[in-house]
Amino acid sequence: MPINLDMIEKWDREDSLSKYREEFYLLKDSIYMDGNSLGLLSKRAEQSLLSMLDSWKKRGIDGWTSGEEPWFYLAEKLGEMSAPLVGARSEEVIVTGSTTTNLHQLLATFYIPDAERTKIVSDELNFPSDIYAIQSILSLKGYKPEEHLIAIKSRDGHTIDEEDIIASLKEDVALLILPTVLYRSGQLFNIEKITKIAHEKGIIVGWDGCHSVGTIPHKFHDWNVDFAYWCNYKYLNSGPGGVGSLFVHEKHFNKTPGLMGWFGSDKQKQFDMEHTFLKAKNSGAYQIGTPHIFSMAPLLGALQMFNEIGMEKLRVKSLHMTKIMMSLIEQELSHFGFKIINPKEDTSRGGHISILHPEAARICKALKEHRVVPDFRKPNIIRLAPVALYNTYQDAYDTVIILKEIMQNKEYEKFTNEREVVA
Ligand SMILES: *Cc1c(COP(=O)(O)O)cnc(C)c1O
Fold first, then answer.
1. What is the pLDDT of residues 251-303, one digit of tens each?
2. How far, in Å, CA of 60 to CA of 63, rounded?
3. Do 209 and 252 share a structural domain?
4. To test the ligand 1 pocket, which listed residue (99, 182, 211, 215) has its Cβ within 8 A of the most ligand atoms?
5. Domain range spanning residue 383?
6. Is 183 in the pocket of ligand 1 (CB under 6 A)?
7. Whose CA is nearest to atom 14 of ligand 1?
8. What is the domain-level CATH number for residue 108?
9. How far is the CA of 236 from the centre of ligand 1 (A)?
């Protein structure tokens, strides 16, 4: 049955998460479909940032150890609050660094090449920064990245076949680094299965959770994932440049971080100022320098909502919204040359949908003129993320209808088909 407005209104009325929309600062007269790139500000996140400023204002240096949220323990506290989102033990997650710096840290720790194993496997569709970090560690250790980084090829240019991942896990591989969800096509990998197979071959596995944490439930601990890292400014709404997170499985707590710094110390010992590094006995050991308090503070308020609702519920709504959106695209846009490139099954679809069109760059500009905020990715991909916390079914519907009008009237033709500086 075709989707109509009555159905859309009914889904919105029956949506038990709809009250959370009011907690966000929605952009005026706009439909925001870009929560997978930069989530919106919530009132709670704003409040937690303001209260941290207040703590500095009123306490000066004593803010480190006093006040509602003493800064000295904030990274651990946020790690504990993030743990349920990724299925971790409290001590396995720490909020620190950025996605890229955390990967550098984790590679410096977990990439231990020996006579047999020197290669790092990743994929050719991975985010460039992850690839640069892998190339760096190989160069630092004296290995040529061209030979020692194995990038699994995509057969269709958008997704990676599980078989090809498995086939790449040869005897000379030390590490496997993959995104949980590919940032362009939104393909979700079977994290548990791939981790298990890699382990059977003696390979350590790390996952980049940037496009899944906050939209998909995980069980990193039970799945025996060695390490993971992600950013908090996408689905988790912690703000531009918000501090990232990392997970290290407790079975690795005996390891010494590759990049040591005093904030990785045992907290009781840190201020002894000894020149012998006494590391924290948990993922806190992977911190390097003084935490960026104001870039962490919004996460406090933002995470409360995720913990109130629980990831399972958010995933159900997210999957339903993306499914409805795909159906609407097929129903309304079939004559305009769009191709849906994200996997369609619930088990391998992330939180956004991805559509391909040769005029994608300028179609996105036309959408913006109509106050729909999409996300363009080179060369010709439009990503649309209906976010369970703050988008409505009506948003998804209106986006597709506006897109249809743009195509019917060829409104995109007045723009150039090139990306903007930040796209
Ligand atoms: C967003 C994103 C990044 C960004 O890394 P930063 O260090 O936070 O700038 C890295 N990898 C992936 C897969 C991403 O989606």
1. 999 999 999 999 999 999 999 999 999 999 999 999 999 999 999 999 999 99
2. 6
3. yes
4. 99
5. 5-32+310-407
6. yes
7. 210
8. 3.40.640.10
9. 13
